[in-house]
Sequence to fold (1460 residues):
Amino acid sequence: MKRDDERGMHEKWREYRRPGYYEELDYAWTMTIDLDRCTGCEACVTACKAENNLPIVGEKAFAQGREIQWMRIERYWEGEYPNARLRFIPMLCQHCEAAPCETVCPVTATYHNQDGLNAQIYNRCIGTRSCAVYCPYEVRYFNYNNHHWDPPLDQQLNPDVTVREKGVMEKCTFCIQRIRQAKDLAKDDGRRRVRDGEVQPACVQACPAEALVFGDRKDPASRVSASMNDPRAYRVLDELNTRPSVIYLKKVTTDAG
Amino acid sequence: MPAEVASLRYADVNRDVVRSLVETGPKYYITLACALGLTLVCFLFPWFYQLNLGIAAAGMNHPQVWGTYEASFIFWIGLSHSGTLLSCVLHITHSSWRKAMYRSAEAMTLFSLMVAVTMVMVHLGRPWFIHWAFPYPNQMELWPNFRSPLLFDVTAIATYLTGSSVFIYMGSIPDFAAVRDRTTGWRHHLYTLLSLGWRGTDTEWHRLGWAYTLLAVLIIPLAVSVHSIVSWDWASSIVPALHQTIFAPYFVVGAIYSGTAGIVTVMFLLRKYMSFERYITELHFDNLGKLLLALSLIWTYINVLELFTGWYSGASTELEALKYKLFGYYAPLYWEMILCCAIAPLLLISKRFRTSFVPMLVLSIAINIGMYTERFLIVGTSLSRKYLPDAWGLYVPSLVELSILVGSVALFSTLFLLFVKIFPSVSIYEVKETLPEAAELPKPATAERGGVQWQPVQ
Amino acid sequence: MAKLERRDFLKLVGAGSVGVGAGFMLAQSIKHPLEHLIPYPIPPEEFSPGVATWYNSVCSMCPAGCGISVRTREGRPKIIQGNPSHPVSQGRLCGLGQSGVHVLYNPDRLTTPLLRTGDRGAGAFVPTTWDEGLAKIAERLRTLRENDRGNRICFLSEGVRGHLAMVFERFMEQLGSQRLWHFDFAHPRTLYEANQRLFGEQHLPYYDLKNARYLLSFGADFLGHWLSPVHHSLGLAHSRQGRPGVRGKFVQIEPRMSLSGAAADEWIAARPGTEGLLALGLAHRIVSAGHYRGPDRDGWADKLSRYPAERVARETGVDADTIARLADSFAQTQPSLAIGGGAAGNHTNGVDILIAVNVLNYLAGNLGGAGGLVFNPPPAVDSPRRHASYRTMLDLAAEARAGQIEVLIVNKTNPVFALPAAAEFKEALARIPLIVSLSSFMDETTALADLVLPSHTYLESWGDDFPEPGVGFPVGAISQPVVSPLYDTRATGDIILGLSQRVGLGTALPWANMEECLKQGWREIHQRGSQNGDAESFETFWTSVLQAGVWGQDAHRAAPAVNIEPRVIDGIDVEAPRFSAASEEYSFILHPYLSTGLHDGRGANLPWMQELPDPLTSVVYGSWVELNPVTAQQLGVSEGDVVDVQSAHGRISAPVYIYPAIRPDVVAMPIGQGHDEYGRYAQRRGVNPIQILAPEMEPSTGALAWSATRVKLVPTGRRVKLVKTDGASRQLGRNIVRTIKAVSS
Ligand SMILES: Nc1nc2c(c(=O)[nH]1)N[C@H]1C(S)=C(S)[C@@H](COP(=O)(O)OP(=O)(O)OC[C@H]3O[C@@H](n4cnc5c(=O)[nH]c(N)nc54)[C@H](O)[C@@H]3O)O[C@H]1N2
Ligand code: SF4
Ligand code: SF4
Ligand code: SF4
Ligand code: SF4
Ligand code: SF4
Fold:
């Protein structure tokens, strides 16, 4: 095979157009979320903030609805007192295989990469915010302004992750920096592939209920594959056919007893 | 033919129109200064502030990432619709009443499009990179996303802008020549340049006739497609209440509706302040009134249809969006829109109403307020009630947004005010065609060959 | 060149300036902020740029003692994760624990010793040196000690364990003072007492949630801040989805749904203070239905006959069928486990309630085995019982007022914030001539100090921890500095050791610093281990413990045969709970609870925790009052309406939040906000419900009964927008959170 720079545009285009090109992912990173384990404690929310340099937006921004939480916990009440019950569901980018956000971005700032991730290129984003309109899961967060960290809080910032500037859309990346690191490590070890469990996104790592499982669903032996095959597995808003890579396991309820 | 027109002679037309270009009173300067000042204070300053701070200057939030800027964008695109489109349709259907008004109508198209494009810039988080949305060859082999309805927009609007600019320019060439011949000094030089050496030969008239008609035929589908494509920004999403097949015709009808109303407003102002009373007459208002009535009925029908589809789907998301639109936070706006765009226009049934200038002005402005509201509601109600109730939100425009909204009208006015001093805002030669004097002239042979009635007038 | 007219020139200049101005503004608008990649020019040796270094240590954000792994880059801690080897946290961490980096990098940290200049509490301090500061206090301590007035020195610390606690003990002992107290608002004092009385156990038992099949929790928010939330969360998750074919069932009994209540399969809102009665009602059923067959069955039957279902149902508000059902399931689904705490332990009859809960464990045979209540072996380094009860604090205040305390040293505890106004503790402090604070932050108590000797944060200090209740076997962990100190601060232990030297207590406290002290302590632990044939050298042992971040001993305690003496059985009873103020006027019971992010207020200065939506309401950055929808309707208030919450001891106001899962006669408020001091993120934000608590106590322990305050609500007519992240709170049939009925396990 010719080196990348030797191949003409037509050659590249042909490969790009080859049937099945999109289906052939190198990895298919997937997360399962067991709603029967999740307690809504929000450790994952904090972990994501710490790992991914999410800004401290301040009270005013919260009041205006401009918080940034790549991982958020949604709450739904059912029934009335004394039978009121609260259901939690962690919501993050679903890394849809048929992602509506990707088709609408005029500059391809958000696209599907060869790992099955819905990637976001901050540099390329011009801030139309249409991807957020198109995303049915409301997991895209826009930088309405530049953010500030009161020094020395800025020293906490993770050097593996950029700080996003105003006018740019952002969202959960499945901690792509950790995936990259694991791949580098595998390469250094002379391995072709990352081992199951080697990549732990920050939220998965933190979760005190071990509700989140992350891995490659192309590997049938991975924990996440096993977890996906649980009969409780379902996808949120499945009817929209976005084919999410985040799979939820139903909450178990019991009869009184 | 109204009496005012019948009494006109060619010389009167020349005089009146050229006067409108050359004689500029203090009133004009004051108006222009106001418009410019308002543009600066209400549009440019807030925009700079927003560029500096970020979109935080606006009221948008999560999940309502689109707001008045998008609404304004659709509004201005819509307003652009009647001008050139109407002019083209009326041209190929030989509606001679069009002739006194089409030039300014086309100008409206052009300037609303420009304002619309500016609104896109205002809307963007990083407008300084807007060139990335254009397909230009670059060493990174990086292209825009051709699947994106937003890119369709870029293409459609760019084409429409080019098409309508050429159309208005081409139609003005004989008039530029006419003005050239009646002016001196820098104006003479300017119009010499603009008239591209027009001498008014038969061949020139013949070619102009053909080209003009051809362009008119091409622009009609283009105009229809532009707003259809704009509607896809919304309709090709899967947002409840936006994901509707009716959206393209809905947008097109809405666009023509608001555009026609806009023409009525502009006609009134031109008539009043540029002393074109003898050219723009009751006839125009009567015809435009009929058109508005027809459009309002179609628009109402589509609105009812939209509600019906939502209700008929039975889906929780659609029903909620419906309920929210009719009875939610923004419901007063919805009912205001219905009043302005569906109920008030029924007055147009009366001929007396149609031929009364001030009531027509009021109605035309009301319709456009209603139509702006419609655009705001499309953005506002749907985005606040999407799929996940936990993420529902509320959006209220900020002062910066409102100011920019007002400023965009000022920007439009400024452009229009500059236009009326450069372009003859009433078509000299076409108006002449309708005068009794025209009948006295010999018919040139070219007219038959062209199949269209064109008369060289000098 | 054409002649340039003046007017043209001016026009050109004008146009040019507008152009340049616009260009400048545009450029300003789009320019990137300046960034610095490496925080300092001369890097320490230990790092290579671009490569992360991990250090294992111990979380000190709450008393659970989770093990942490800190990722540092270029010498700077970046993220705190759980230490996978540590049996308490097993690689997991709660949000508060992860926010430890915000303690370290907090912009409001005290960076240097401070000396008060103005009036007390006026907030006027000048920087001083460590030498001067230490000399000033050492001088006073020496004088007092030499004059045999050592007992006039009082040391009030946050709860500490391990060798630091030992250093404090020796220090105060040498000074000749008995006034050494640990003060934590939420210390589960009544729980210790209950275990002591029923089982004769000094230490808390390990609650084996992981292996339980039926969990009955009386008010214990074990996923919130009760004992060891991360470990409990792991346990509960495992009990439900970690065992093929078995799913543990869990019932929570509490007046207001907590995080744990939300996780429960069944949530029961018994009348506040009657949890013990309910437990004895269940016990009655267990015995009378023949589920309990122990030799002392008759004694129990006799004793419990006073708690028939009808009476219990009437007084608790839980119907008789439910009582029978719960009791049967609890007894028959083995192993089962009953736990009690939180609000249930904070009534005036808190100890009775917790004893009653333990009776259930006894009767169902849950003692000692897997999935039950496992008694802990003694920790490798025992911690002294030094937790100050509310009564102790009152005594302290009285002594201060009587002029019996001349020096008060406060270590990272904040009694001015965490005691009710009724205790008049702040006023009492005014009578103490010298107050020294070792806090890292200007909190409410530190603001009253004369001398501030700011200590390191835990991420900069040496220490160790022996978590309690631990995990059923002895665990220890060393807390090591993961970053060189950011400021001119010192580790708490080093400050005390430094003082000892200056006062001349060298023989009893011979170590130059905490690291040395720890090493000696751990040498002993190592030697004890070596007697069992472990031959590695101490240095290897020390390094390996440091690297692993944890040391454990496979020494499960044999399940003791617990026999409760007839005398004890006889004494079992639950008194009726006492509530402050007459119920007609003060018609609601106030249910204050520890906030998930802010804990007892310690987290209020951490931006991440202020911005963490409350798990149950999604509110951020403020206080609120939770009302049942019916109550709100009766009062004519809705979300955002500000109400005055008035007790007989004070008044605070906060906006209403309509909470679907709270008893109509109870109003709940989170603890944590309402700081007057404590830095920019905490100050002037929300209100502190502790301030209006009635000074009711559990009589036998003197613990503050912080669930025993009655309040009235007075709408103020003001309305604010409650800052929260939630939109609508119902699913509207959209099947977002899907559920499945368990196929009976
Ligand atoms: N605008 C701008 N221009 C710059 C600079 C700048 O900062 N800005 N920087 C300047 C500097 S400092 C430099 S060093 C130059 C770099 O300029 P170049 O030397 O052109 O560097 P690259 O762009 O990295 O391209 C190197 C090529 O080598 C190919 N390649 C990769 N590995 C191999 C290999 O093993 N064998 C062979 N034969 N080919 C390989 C790659 O595919 C790529 O096509 O650019 C200079 N030009
Ligand atoms: S950390 Fe785990 S248990 Fe907690 S909210 Fe997130 S997913 Fe749920
Ligand atoms: S969840 Fe939203 S942002 Fe993520 S891939 Fe799907 S559509 Fe895109
Ligand atoms: S906001 Fe950015 S990523 Fe989203 S559609 Fe626009 S350019 Fe693309
Ligand atoms: S995967 Fe990473 S980026 Fe995504 S929510 Fe979890 S921590 Fe955040
Ligand atoms: S539970 Fe306590 S010790 Fe454990 S991580 Fe959270 S704050 Fe730290």
